[in-house]
User: What shape does this take?
Amino acid sequence: MKILMVVSELSPYVKTGGLADMVSSLSRELVRNGNDVRALIPFYGSIEERWRRNMRPLASPLCVHMGQERWARVHETIERCGLHVYFLEHHHYFDRERPYDSCYGAYGDNGERFAFLCRAAIDLPSLIDWIPDVFHCHDWMASLVPVYLETVVRHGPLGNSASVLTVHNLEHQGYGDKSIVQMAGLPQWTFRPDGLEACGAVNFLKGGIYFANKLTTVSPSYGEEIKTAEGGFGLDGALRFRGGDIIGILNGIDCEVWDPATDSALAANYSSKNISAKSTCKSALQKMCHLDERQSAPLFGVISRLHWQKGLDTLCDAMEWILAHMDIQFALLGAGQWQLEERFRLLANRHSGKMFAAIGYDEELAHRIEAGCDFFIMPSRFEPCGLNQLYSLRYGTLPIVRATGGLRDTVQNYGNCEDCGTGFVFNDLTADAIRGTIRWACDTYHRAPAHMAAMIRRAMESDFSWSRSAIRYCECYRWALQSKS
Ligand code: ADP
Assistant: This one.
């Protein structure tokens, strides 16, 4: 099948979260399975020189048929695996350091910028003489693609192309003034409650939800949660309406990038057959993070965007008491809301030797934390899939998670026995619940080493590779194509 991924970020070129990893590793797996996969992303100013060196510009510029014609240059990279990546260059829209926002908040013209990306996805195929069977669109930034396909280009060369929209995070929906409809060159009738309109404004994601041929979410539980008033962020009605067309497919991980047996960022490599070197990783991490170098202290890790979604404000509430009363250590890596950054910085200052906080973004340190910790905490308010708990399982670092979305689907709760569990699961997002679960994990660590060892082995041997999920995406693409014909 010919599949065009339309996405606002893609690893390794530009990444702000799990979206970039997911699309990159799914695309590669689909190529490995014999599909012709290409991806279109904006050419941001922040894309590093080392990636720019491998790009070549297409011979002709791309005419993007918004309300008014606009022109862009497109650059192409062909990755070693065979994935073609197209970078959409438009100085005014994309030559910026960060994809969505600056220090003053979200860019005011995000609607226009990503409408441009969507329309470019529609115009690219004729320029490169390659008609996709399926446009796989990701989140609100690509949500106008299905709207174009079902309206203005319905009877052209793309008439048989289907669309699949994956909802990675319903919280972000993409709002804009209703003038965007005209600016984007879409018919006015699309601005209606069962289309692009929400509260008098344009809601990109809502349009995608109504117009895409099929919808997916990144875990089965999240697919159910978004249909409820509690998890629907105002779009639960639209999602219930499309309920029969939504499937939840669990994200996989890139098992080559995240492999403790070969990971070059680690002080030592290990595998489920021989995990003894994991303790070397722990010592190295303790040293690097200025924590007391003791194997006996259970070490807990967090790597996260510091955002309301992640429940880390409640973790902070719990940590003051935990750090004062328990013999445990924390290593945190994250960036985001300044209030949370400040709270973690203060905690680390007050509890040096027990708590380390790196505020920033650091891929290498992320690998070291995954390998060096004993436990990994994710107390998310909601979690569409979550990647870090999957990396943690693969690195034998037992996840402590709240039962929501993908966390619920991927971590089996410990049941005080040797043959069950890959982590610790709690229900309520309260400081009490977090404290209690951390205490439970510590007790298990000290009192039931055989149970711990069995859990670590089971966690490391869980299969979260893309092979199964990529097959399910192919089924979904076929299903979308059938609903088109
Ligand atoms: P989300 O997409 O909601 O941020 P995910 O768990 O799906 O959450 O994916 C987060 C990805 O971003 C993971 O690959 C994680 O390792 C990475 N990540 C998040 N924050 C940082 C950070 N400060 N430094 C390095 N990697 C980070």
Remarks:
- The longest strand covers residues 69-78.
- The chain has 18 helices and 21 strands.
- The two ends are 16 Å apart (CA to CA).
- The mean pLDDT is 97.
